[in-house]
Amino acid sequence: MNVFETSTAKVDLRPALPAVEAWRESEILTREKAVLGFYLSGHPLDKYREEIEAFANSQLGSASGLKPNTTVRACGIVAGVKRKIDKKGNTMAFVTLEDFTGKADCIVFSDAYQKFTKILVPESMVMVIGKGETSGDLLKILVNEVIPMESVRDRFTKSISLAVNLDVVSEDTVQQLRTIMERHRGKCPCYINVSGGGLSKKSVYLARNVSVDPSIQFIGLVKQLLGPSSVRLQG
Predict the structure, then answer these.
(1) Integer CA distances (angstroms), 155 to 21, 137, 212, in order
(2) Whole-model pTM?
(3) Which residues contact 205 (CB under 8 A, 6 or more apart)?
(4) Helix %, strand %, coil % for the chain, to 5?
(5) Those residues with Cβ within 8 angstroms of residue 183's Cβ, 6 or more apart along the chain or in another chain
(6) Residue 87: Cβ within 10 Å count
(7) Residue 9 pLDDT
(8) SS3 of 174, please?
(9) Phi, psi of 120 (to 5 degrees)
(10) Of the residues 99, 134, 152, which one is the last residue of a structural domain?
């Protein structure tokens, strides 16, 4: 064989993969939970962290310190719904609710279930309000009201607090903040918590000339400007 002679490599041709639309984040998380039993790349409730931290008074996985008959506001994902016919022939439901920390059993009697049937479906994200009780480490909630998570912010937000550290921000940053507030006017009073800059303690100022709309867009822009812990919703 001639040393200069070349050979042609055998190419294994395979069918081209079809071009498909990328999965939405919600679909990715749903499939992760179905296959693995848990969320891997994120959590569906992540986009509602501000509301949960501000307005929920109970974590589903931390029920041990709960006093009997405490009114509970808890947020989570509906993981399961079991319907049952009560003694009067009406439909009630036992709902499993999950959050970042664990799960709880929610008992929804017929009157409440009739009101909130359309909301209490698997994978919906809700706040439930009702009387809480514990059974060992498990939280049980006798549900009176159910609120979709997308409505919680409007329902409970009375004001919003922004943290400004004068040791970190510049005059230009403060001007950008004012521009963001002007572009997202609403009915919500805005308080500025100022620290640093030689101040001996934090000072709180009400932005008297502008109230804001505490929308996802507004909060996202403020976090980009001031940092991830700069915004707090207040009830």
Answers:
(1) 36, 30, 15
(2) 0.76
(3) 191, 192, 194
(4) 25, 35, 40
(5) none
(6) 5
(7) 60
(8) helix
(9) -85, 75
(10) 152
The whole-chain average pLDDT of the chain stands at 85
Sort residue 56 into left (φ over 0), alpha (ψ -120 to 50) or beta. beta
Distance CA 74, CA 61 (A): 11
pLDDT in tens, 96-111: 999 988 899 999 999 9
Q: Which domain does 50 fall in, by range?
A: 44-152
Q: Count CA atoms closer than 13 A to 91's CA, side-chain side.
A: 9
Question: In sequence order, what are the residues at sequence separation of 6 or more whose Cβ sits closer than 8 angstroms to the Cβ of residue 24?
Answer: none
- 148 and 161 inside one domain: no
Mean pLDDT, residues 12-36 taken together: 65
Dist. CA 55–CA 156, nearest whole Å: 7
Residues in the chain: 235
Distance of alpha carbon 84 from the chain centroid: 30
User: So what's the pLDDT on residue 21?
Assistant: 74
86 with 92: CB under 8 angstroms? Answer: yes
Q: Looking at residue 76, which CATH number applies to its domain?
A: 2.40.50.140
> Which residue type occupies 38?
F
- What's the pLDDT tens digit per position in 52-104? 999 998 888 877 777 777 899 999 999 999 999 999 999 999 999 999 888 99
Any domain includes 8: no
Asked whether residue 11 is assigned to any structural domain, the reply reads: no
